[in-house]
Amino acid sequence: MEDKTVDYYITCFSTESGKRVLANLLMEANLFECSHTPEEQAVENFIKMILTKTGKFHKDNVDMMIEGFINLPRIERKER
Length: 80
Known about the structure:
Layout: H1 5-14, H2 16-28, H3 38-53, H4 62-70
Helix pairs in contact: 1-2
């Protein structure tokens, strides 16, 4: 039997609500912060697994990911 997991992840996260859920998962996992504890690293690895299950978060896509990343608008970091 063919594994349809990647298809299910793509279907889920391709909708507007799925994109919002994925964005929320990334924010809740503090993906944009450094991880300092084994627990934080475990959460980061879990998020990487979710992204990998989409079939798009892969080293073979690194050039396209960097191109998209570089073209994002720059956000000035606020001093804390």
